[in-house]
Each structure stands twice: as C-alpha cells, then as structure tokens.
C-alpha cells in the first residue's frame, strides 16, 4: 500500500502578533456609547457668611420626600405608592393646581411671555434611598420624577407656544423653567430598612 503523506506544519508563532494588531485596530476604529446622565441643576455655592443649616427653614409643605427602601418600595410623602402612581403624585406636588394648603405654597412671579404667575418656586423634592435599594429601582424613580417635570413643561409649552418644551427657543425655555423649576435633592443612602 501507499505510504502516509506528512502534513506540513503551520507556523503559528506570528498569530499572537496578528491577534494583537486586530484588537488594536478595532479598539481604535470603533466608537463606544457613552451613557448620558440625568440632567440636574445643582444649587449655587454656599456663601461663606451663610448661617448654619439648622437656621435654614424649608417649610414642611414645600418638601416632598421620596424614599426607596431596601425592598424597593416607594414612600412618597407619607404613603406607599406604586411606580406607576409616582409621576402623577410628583406632578400634583410641583404644580399644586388647587392651591392645597398641604402642598407647596404659591408665590407670584413675573415670568417673561407669561406675565404674573403663581408658582411653587420654593418646592423641593428630596430623593432618598436605602443602602439595600436596587440600582435599577433608584434609576426608575429618578426617571419618573424627571418625567413629571417634563410633562408639566410640555403641557404649558404647548398651551402657550404650540410646541414641545425641547422645541422652544432658549429664552422661552427659561420662562417655562421659571414656572416649573427643577429642584431635586439627592441624599446619601442610609439604612432605613424595609419596614412597611
């Protein structure tokens, strides 16, 4: 019978170099998606002569505490709510449409394009979470609060200018923001627990 033929060996010594060069090529030519954070308007720096925090008075009616506990339950004010209810609760707090004495006090403000308007300019939403809160639950709550501001701003923008807030000119956007200023305070996580 015939003798076996030898298969020539493949020289693999340069394959590591080729793999490294391919990796470098793809790293340099591909673009990575960068996550966009939620926009926040930070408070101005504290003046050196400002009194201690104990002297700063935020009226209880102007403060809405939204707390996510370690069981990812949402406490909005003094009641537990579902994620689907949160946006409407926040919208009601921000706008105080019926001038409820338990919701933020309204102050008269002279707003460009709108004239004198009664707005809840001193309201604050305090977003707090437990150390055991899931990250996604925290992000979902942030999104619902942001959506409440967006819907209020879109509604008044359509009513006054016939456009969405994002489509307004910068000075028109500033006027709408004067009516619905975004005031969200995010506190450091604490150990609240999952108490019902």
Report on this structure.
The protein is an alpha/beta fold. Helix content is 33%, strand content 16%. The strands form 2 sheets. It has a 5-stranded mixed β-sheet with strand order 3-2-1-6-7, covered by helices on one side. It has a two-stranded antiparallel sheet with strand order 4-5. A hairpin with a 3-residue loop joins strand 4 and strand 5. The longest helix is centred in the last third of the chain and has 27 residues, at 135-161. The radius of gyration is 27 Å and the shape is elongated. The N and C termini lie far apart (86 Å).
Largest sheet features: 5 strands, mixed
Helical/strand content category? alpha/beta
Alpha-carbon distance between the two ends: 86 Å
Poorly predicted runs are: 50-56
The proportion of residues in beta strands is: 15-25%
What is the residue-averaged pLDDT?
84
Total count of strands: 7
List SSEs in N-to-C order: HEEEHEEEHHE
Q: What strand order characterises the main sheet?
A: 3-2-1-6-7
* Helical fraction: 25-40%
**Tally of separate helices:** 4
Instruction: Give me the Rg, rounded.
Output: 27 Å
What is the approximate shape? elongated
Give a quick set of tags describing it.
two-stranded antiparallel ribbon; elongated; 196 residues; 7 strands; alpha/beta; 16% strand
